[in-house]
Each structure stands twice: as structure tokens, then as C-alpha cells.
Amino acid sequence: MGVADVDVPGDDPREAVVALSGEIDLTVRDDLLDTLCSAIHTAGVTRVVVDLAQVSFMDSTGLHVLITARERALGSGVAFHVAGATGIVRRVLAVTGLLTLLAGETDARPDGPVPPSPATDSSQAADLPSATKS
Fold first, then answer.
1. Using CA atoms, how far apart are residues 46 and 87, in angstroms rounded to an integer?
2. Is 50 exposed, middle or buried (0-12, 13-18, 19+ CB in 10 A)?
3. How much is the pLDDT for 12?
4. Are the C-beta atoms of 71 and 35 separated by less than 8 Å?
5. What is the number of alpha carbons within 13 Å of residue 3 lying toward its C-beta?
6. The pTM is what?
7. In the list 3, 46, 51, 100, which could disulfide-bond 14, CB 3.0-4.6 Å?
8. Which pLDDT value is given to residue 116?
């Protein structure tokens, strides 16, 4: 993935858009965080939008970078928003609860309902072996 340069569109010079593509993982962590911090500290910018529409994969390192950048943005008085996540990237954000935090989406279902795990589905709880000793 080549980390995109910061783009400040002509419509609103207070908004910096960082469009990413490819895979967000350990190999791009430092460059991505530097790019996001550059956007956050661009003169006159009051909002940073991270466009994930072209991102095909993101692991926990990418999640950590987004949370770190959000904390730095908020600490600098800059709004931070993630947009455009689709597929597996959207699912990872939804399952971790970060879709709501970073994108403001209250309906955080990735592509429909996330099936409950057997351990948390109360309809299957009776079928689980008991952990108590007699």
C-alpha cells in the first residue's frame, strides 16, 4: 500500500481527506500514522476524514493506528472521521465496535447481522457443557 498524501479539497479547506488503498498492516504502520498526524496538524484543518473505500485488508495494527490518530486529533481540537469502509474492513470495524466510534454509524452491522458466537447465543447455552465440578 502506498500511503496517500493529504488532500485538502477545494470545497472546504478546513477538511483534510486521507484516501488509503491496499492493505493496512504492520508494514505501513509508521507511514500511515505520520500521514494522519500530518493531516491533523495541517494549518486551518478542523476535520480529518480517512477514506477506506479502496482498502482491501486491515489488521489490528491498522485499528491501533486509527485509534491513536483519533486520540491525537481530538487532543488537538480536530474532528476525526472514517468513511467508505466495505467488505472485510467494514466487518473488522463493526465487530470491534470501532465502526460506531470512528464512523459514527449506529447500525454497525457489517453486511447484515453478525451471527452470535455459540458461547453468547442464549438459545444454545443449554447445549454447552457445564464448567461446574460436582
1. 29
2. buried
3. 81
4. no
5. 20
6. 0.74
7. 46
8. 35
The interaxial angle of helices 29-40 and 60-75, nearest 10 deg, is 20
The owner of cell 457489517 is 110
| Grid cell for residue 127 | 447445549
- Which three cell numbers mark 68? 491513536
- List, in sequence order, the alpha helices (H) in 77-120: 87-95, 98-103
Distance of CA 114 to the CA centre of its chain: 17
Mean pLDDT of 41-62: 94
Query: Could you tell me where the beta strands, DSSP code E, fall in the chain?
Result: 15-24, 47-58, 79-83
Q: Is the dihedral of CA 52, 57, 60, 61 positive or negative?
A: negative
